[in-house]
Amino acid sequence: MLNCKPSLLTVAIAAAGMSVMFMPQDVNAADNSSEQQASIERTQLASTVDKSATTDGNNNVASDDADIEQIERIKVTGYSRSLIDSINTKRYGDTVSEQLSADDLGALPDVSMADALTRLPGISAVRTGGQAAEINIRGMSGGFVFSTLNGREQVSTSGSRSIEFDQYPSELISSAAVYKSPKASLIEGGVAGTVELATVSPLSKDNQHNFVVNARAMYNDRASEVYGAKEHGDRFSFSYQGKYLEDTLGVAVGYARLNQPSVATQFIGLAYNDVKDVDGVSGDINGSVDCPECEYISEGFELQHLGGVETRNGYMGAIEWAPVDNFVLKADTFISRFDSESFARGFRVKLGGANASVANPVLDGNAVIGGTFNRSSSSYTRVELVNDDNQDFDEVDNYGVNADWQVTDNLNVNVDVSLSSAKSDFRNGLLWSNVAVDANADTPIFDENVSISYLLNGLDLPNIGFNQADAFSDIDRVMVSKYGIYPFENEDELKAYRIDFEYTLDNDYIASIEFGARYSDRTYSNDRSVFEYGNDGAFSGSEPPLQLTNDMATVVNWDGDFGYFPSYLAIDLDSALNAWFPNGTPQPVQTWGNAGGVIDAQGYTTNYSWSVLQSGEVYEEVTSGYIMANIDMEIGDLPVTGNLGVRVVNTDQSATMLQNVDGDATLGAQNITDSIGIINQNYAPTVQGDSYTDVLPSINLNFKITNDSQIRFAAAKVMSRPPINRLAGDISASVNDDGEINGSSTNNPFLKPFYADQYDLSFEHYFDEGAVVAAVFYKNIDSFIDTFAIENYDFKGNGFNVPDYITDDVSGEQIETTNGTYTTAVNNAEGGYIRGLELAYTHVFTSLPSPFSGLGFSGSYSFTQSEVESITDLGGDSVTQALPGLSENVANATLFYSYEGFETRISARFRDEFVSEQVAINEQVVNFDGETVIDYQASYQVTDGLGVLFQINNLTDEPTKSYFGSTSKTGTIQYFGREFYLGLNYAM
C-alpha cells in the first residue's frame, strides 16, 4: 500500500520550496556569502575573547586579520565552555535542535544520559527507582522518541521502542543532540523528536593524547531506613584518546562503572476493579450497569521497603584511519551491561472485593477511599507479607563501520554498516507469607479473622489499621504459603546498511544535493515461563506452607514518615527456599498444561498455557531512500539557509502466531511440544503481517535577519512505528456452538505507525555572552493505538485459519460459520493536535569584573497543550486522561559560578502533572503529580590535572506521587532518598 495522498503539509512544503528555489538573488551574492561566513567566524570568536579586544563601532570584533591575531583570549572552561559550544552548534545547525557539548557531559558527569538530556528545553524525564530513565519530548512519551548512536538506529531493552537512556553512561558520550524538526537525511521514527548520541572521533581532537580518570564514592541517606539495603556505592571511569602515524591513525577507548544502592520506601494503591453496594443508597451515582446502586472498590494496596544494588558497566572503543586526505575509515563499538538485583518487603493488602463485609465506608463520589473491610466466608480479604526478589540483567551492544570518501572536490560518498542488539532477562520472584492461627500446629490453619481499616489521604500517606498487626512480626504465627517465579526475556536485534551521497553545486541557490538509501532488518523475540508452588490466599494441603525458624526471619520496623506502619518479618529467601525445596528450587518452564494441571518433570503441578502463547517473534524489514537539497541563498539582502527534501520508506512487518484450530489438521494444526515435554495438538503456527509505503516530505529554513538574530521555520510529515512488542502475535479465535467465530488479541501485527504533520517557528537572538530563543510548534497526529471491538470481522479474509463449517455434536448437522467480534489493538483512537511554546535563555557573564565574571545562568520553560485524550476506568468511573507524557508546564534552570579553579552549580527541573505507567504495576496508566528535582554539584581544580568533586542528587528527596483520576484516590507515594557523591578527577 502506497501512502502518498497529498496533504496540506505536502502542498505547503512544495510551495515553500519552489518559492525559495526560484527567488531572484542579488548579483553580489558571492561577496555577501563570504561576508556572512566572516561574520560567523567573528561571532564564534567573540564568545571566547577578552572584552578589551579591538572592536568596531558596533561592538563587534574587528574584522582585520592582523587585529584578530593580536586579540587576547581568555580561557573559558567547564560548564561555561560547554554552554558556549552548545549555543554555537544550535546556531549554525540546519534544523530546530537542542545540543549538549562534550564539556557539559564530561566535566561533572550526570548519572546517565537521561539526566543530562532533561536540562534541554521541552524535555522531561520519567523517574524509575528515583533515576531518570525514559525521556518525554514536547509532551510525548518515550515511545514517540527515536534515538540514534553515531547516526545509527538503536534498539532497546525496554521490550518496546522506548530507549532507556539510563543504559548510556554520560562519561562515554561526547555529544548529544535532540532534533525537534526532521530533515530527509535523518532516519525516520520520531514523532516527538530524535535523540542523537555520539561517541568520540579520535582524529578530530586537538590534543595528541588525552587521558581522563574519574572516581567517586556515593551514599544514599534513606538506605538506613530499609533493612538489608546498602548505603554506599561507587562510580569509576577512564577514557583515552590518541593520534599516531602522523595523525593518520586515531584510537579511543573508555570504560565507566556505576555501582549504586537502589532504595525506596513506597505505598502503592491498586486499581478500582470491583463493585459493591456499601451504603445501601441508590441514586444518580451508578457503579456499573449490572449494579447501578454499587460503589467502586479498590483491589487493595501495598506498603513496601525496596532495596538492592544496580551495577552498570559501559565500554566504548573506536579506531579511525585516514591514510590519505580524502578518505576516513572508522570502526566503533559501544557496550553496556546494566544489572539490577533488588528486594521488595512489606505488605500486600487485598480488600476482598464484592464479597467482603464493609463497615463505615468513606466515599469520594462513587469510589470507596476508606472503611473497615472484614473477611467473609466468600471473600479474599487478607494481608499478605511479601518478600519479593527481582533480578533484571540488561545488555546493549552496538557495532559499526563507516567509510567516508571525498571522491572529487564535489562528490562525497559515505557507507555505513551497523549492528544494534539488546537483551533483557527479567526474573520476578515472589514469596508470600500469611498468618496462621498457630504455626506450630501439626496441621496449621489459615487465620480467617481478618479486619482491615484504612483511609486514603490524597497525595499523603494513608491511615491504616490491622487487627492482625501483632502477628505480622510473630514467628509463631507467620508461615510461608507460596513461591512464584515469573521470568520475562526479550531480545531485539537490528542490522542496518546505509549509503549516502553529497554533491556540491556551484549554484547561487542550492549549495549541495544529498541522496541515499538505507536497509534494516530487525528481529524481536520474547519468552515467558513460570513456576508456582503453594497458595497465596490460603494454606494448601497438597503443597503445605513452610514453618519459619529464627535463622530465617528478622523483625523489621518502619522509620520516618512510614514509622506508624506495623512491624513485619523480613525472610531470608535462600534459607526459606532451601528448607522448602531441599532438592533445589525448581526452575520456570513454558508449558501448555491442561484444565486439571499436570505434574511436570520436576514433580510440581504446572498449568500455564499463557507462557507459550505469549512467547514469539516479530520481524521488521525497512527500505528507505531520500533526496534533499541544501539551500544557501539570499532573498534580497536576507541570507537564507536550510534544506528541502523527501524520504520514502517501505516497511514489511510480521509476527509469529499460534491460532487455536481445535486440532484440525486441515487448518494447519501441528504437534507443539513445551519445555517439559507436553504435546499440544490444538494450534496452527503461522506468520502474519503487513507491508506499507510512506512518503515523508520536510523543509527547514533559516532566515538570518541580522548578524545576531535569525528566524527558523520547519515543516514535515513524521512517523513513529508502534511499539515493537505491540506487533507480537498473541491472537486467539474460537467457534461457538452456533458457528459464530470470535477472537481477541492484546497486540496486532497489522498495526500502522503514528503519523503527524508538524510545524515549527522559532526566533533566536545571540549575543557575546549567550542567547535568547523563543519557539512555537504544532503537531497534528492522525491516530493512537487503542483496544477496540470490531463487529462482523472477516476472520478468514484477514488470514485466520477458521473452518467454513462445524458439526453439531448432537444432530451431526453441518453448521456454516459466521463472523463475530474481534477485539484487538488498532490505530483507532482519535488523534488531535499538540501545540506549545518554548522559551530559553542562557547568559555567561564574562563581562562582569572579577570575581563575578564566572557567574552564569541557563534556563528554559515550555508550555504544551493537546486535545488528545484517553479514557480510563482504573479509578472507578470512566474519566478522561491527558496524552501520556504530557506536562503542560516544564521548566529547568541552572545557576553556576566559577572562579580560579572552583566551579559550582545548582540545577532544578520541574514538570507539572502528567500521565504515565504506575510504578511496579503493569498496564496501569495513571496521573502523576508534578515534581521538582534539584541537584547540586561543585568541583575544585587542585592542579592542572587533578580535581576534586562533590555532588548531591535529589537534594530535597522529592518523591514520586500518582493517583487514579482524582487526587483522593491514591496511586503511588514513593521516596528514594538523597544521593551524595565525593570523588576525584585526573586528566592529562
Distance between the termini: 58 Å
From the helix content, strand content and strand pairing, which structural class follows? mainly beta
The largest sheet is:
22 strands, antiparallel, barrel
Share of helix, binned: under 10%
| Rg, Å, rounded | 31 Å
Note poorly predicted spans: 1-6, 8-75, 595-603
Number of beta-strand segments: 54
Shape: globular
Strand content: over 45%
Counted by DSSP, the helix tally is 8
- Roughly what is the average pLDDT, rounded to an integer? 85
Identify the notable features of this structure and list them briefly.
single chain; 988 residues; mainly beta; 22-stranded antiparallel β-barrel; five-stranded mixed β-sheet; disordered N terminus; receptor
What do these coordinates show?
Its main location: membrane. The protein is mostly beta strands. The model is unreliable at 1-6, 8-75 and 595-603 (pLDDT under 50). The chain is globular and about 90 Å long. Helices cover 8% and strands 53% of the residues. The protein has a domain at 1-74 and 623-844. The strands form 10 sheets. It has a 22-stranded antiparallel beta barrel.
Quick overview:
Belongs to the TonB-dependent receptor family. With 988 residues, the protein is mainly beta. The protein starts with a strand and ends with a strand.
Write the topology of this structure.
Blueprint (H helix, E strand, L loop, with lengths): L1 E2 L4 H14 L7 H18 L18 H6 L7 H15 L4 E4 L1 H6 L5 H5 L5 E6 L2 E7 L7 E5 L2 E2 L21 E5 L13 E6 L10 E12 L11 E13 L4 E21 L4 E3 L18 E3 L2 E25 L2 E24 L6 E8 L2 E8 L7 E25 L4 E25 L15 E7 L2 E7 L11 E27 L5 E19 L2 E4 L11 E2 L5 E4 L11 E4 L1 H8 L17 E2 L5 E2 L3 H4 L2 E20 L2 E23 L11 E2 L5 E2 L2 E22 L4 E12 L11 E4 L4 E5 L9 E14 L2 E21 L14 E3 L6 E3 L1 E27 L10 E12 L2 E4 L6 E4 L6 E11 L2 E10 L2 E4 L7 E4 L2 E11 L4 E8 L6 E4 L6 E6 L3 E9 L1
Parallel strand pairs: 1-34, 5-8, 37-42
Antiparallel strand pairs: 2-7, 3-4, 5-6, 7-8, 9-10, 9-54, 10-11, 11-14, 11-53, 12-13, 14-15, 15-18, 16-17, 17-20, 18-19, 19-22, 20-21, 22-23, 22-24, 22-25, 23-30, 26-27, 28-29, 30-31, 31-34, 32-33, 34-35, 35-38, 36-37, 38-39, 39-42, 40-41, 42-43, 43-46, 44-45, 46-47, 47-50, 48-49, 49-52, 50-51, ...
